[in-house]
Amino acid sequence: MQQELEFQLRHYKITAIGLGDPNKPMILALHGWLDNAASFVPIANYLVDYYIVAIDLVGHGKSTHRSADAHYHLVDYVHDVHELVTSQKWSPFILMGHSMGGIIASLYASTFNSNVQSLICIESFGPMTKSATSSPEQLQDAILSRLNSQSAKLKPLKSLQGTVKARAMIGEMSFSSAELLIERNLKRQDEQLVFSSDKRLRTLSSLRMTEEQAEAFMGNIQCPVLVISAIQGFEFVKQAISDRLGWVSNIQHSSCDGFHHFHMDNPARVAEQMVNFLIGNSGIK
């Protein structure tokens, strides 16, 4: 069963897809950068003993955008998630995230660790970092990218099928997976199809955490953690996992065949590892 959900926060409307039976244990699912809630539709077919609430992060999918004078900061997503969680009184719950969603999930599990029963990170493990000395250059690049974004116009799609094919090629994913993501990321404007995601999402981050900050966050995670990496995934993700496994006290790491969106293209195997982890560590099935 699939439901369209809406949650009104103080300043934003969060849209979501409810997948499965709401009476079963809940998994709150956070998608990756420029993806949306449809990222978790394929895997829901193999997680029949759970209810997945897959949200569109602010600025993505069908959720509202940040105000015109705001920008997109990683830590603000942690705020959004907590406001949603507290408004719905969701606790404790299973938290799952892919790519950027996994980064947000790990920060949330660290900051509000009593709310999270188990954490599953797919193709991510903690925040991306840079050295402190790179901060001035990082901020300069971010400001320039924001100014350039202000003059960029929203371009209509020339071809839906062509757009899906391009997304599949760039993301190294199947056509069907790309189609799911693209279809939820479209709206009609002046009788033409355009992307619904906020163009400001493509601007550069103003600051990156340092590795010391990342270690402090990851070391504060109290719940059992499963990290699943893609065998053909990004090398920097593999390196981060290798370097950081010792930071978390209760952790399992596994890998599955596929590229960065392998949870969409190889959902049966990914779900199998998730279920084994959840049954073994949380007692939920």
TrEMBL record:
It comes from the Bacteria. It holds the Pfam family Abhydrolase_1. Residues 25-146 form the AB hydrolase-1 domain. The keyword Hydrolase applies. Keywords: Hydrolase. InterPro entries: AB_hydrolase_1, AB_hydrolase_fold, AB_hydrolase_sf. GO terms for molecular function: hydrolase activity. The keyword Hydrolase applies. PANTHER family: MONOACYLGLYCEROL LIPASE, SERINE HYDROLASE-LIKE PROTEIN DDB_G0286239. This is Alpha/beta hydrolase. It comes from Paraglaciecola algarum.
